[in-house]
Amino acid sequence: MSAELTGHERVAADAADRGLVVEIFPRPAANSLGEAAALMGITPSDIVKSLVLKRSDDSFLFALVPGGRAISWPKLRAVVGVNKLQMPHADVALVATGYERGTITPLGSTTAWPVFVDESIVGRRVAMGAGEHGYSMFVAADELIAAYGAVVADISALE
């Protein structure tokens, strides 16, 4: 993937390569999950956070969880089969994915890390970050899961 592409262009190119239909659109900044959902005409649980997490062997993974929920560290560690996972510093996340925090998505990531998806988004159309600030995308969760061969499990808890 060319480094000359903007973040949302990398997302669009990767989606096209995977045969994945995404709708990328500009979105004004929001001060809260509720405000972001209102701007897009959806519920907060329709917004999926893409988090990059670091394993103890210095590899990474993506965890996708819906708005209003947080990673359940014990559940996710059990599914991944590790004793330790951590949220890396923002500059480490940028190196691992090519995206700044708040824009991270598996699509167009500079490295194709494994993807773990909370089971609560199965069957839904969700909004996600689209690789750069000021952009979001809509995608069918089931198609995203299939495009990545993602592991689907109960990996979240209410915030």
Q: Give the distance, in angstroms, between the N- and C-terminal Cα atoms.
A: 36 Å
The H-and-E topology, N to C, reads as HEHEEEHEHEEEHEE
Strand arrangement, major sheet: 5-2-3-6-9
What is the residue-mean pLDDT, rounded to a whole number?
Answer: 96
Level-1 CATH class name: Alpha Beta
Share of helix among residues? Answer: 25-40%
Secondary structure layout:
Layout: H1 7-17, E1 22-26, H2 33-40, E2 48-55, E3 60-66, E4 69-71, H3 73-80, E5 85-86, H4 90-97, E6 115-118, E7 125-129, E8 135-140, H5 141-148, E9 151-153, E10 156-158
Parallel strand pairs: 3-6, 6-9
Antiparallel strand pairs: 1-8, 2-3, 2-5, 4-10, 7-8
Q: What does this protein look like?
A:
- With 159 residues, the protein is an alpha+beta fold.
- It has one domain: YbaK/aminoacyl-tRNA synthetase-associated domain (YbaK protein), CATH 3.90.960.10.
- It is 27% helix and 29% strand.
- The protein is built from 5 helices and 10 strands.
- It is globular and about 40 Å long.
- 34% of the residues are buried.
- The model has no long low-confidence stretch (mean pLDDT 96).
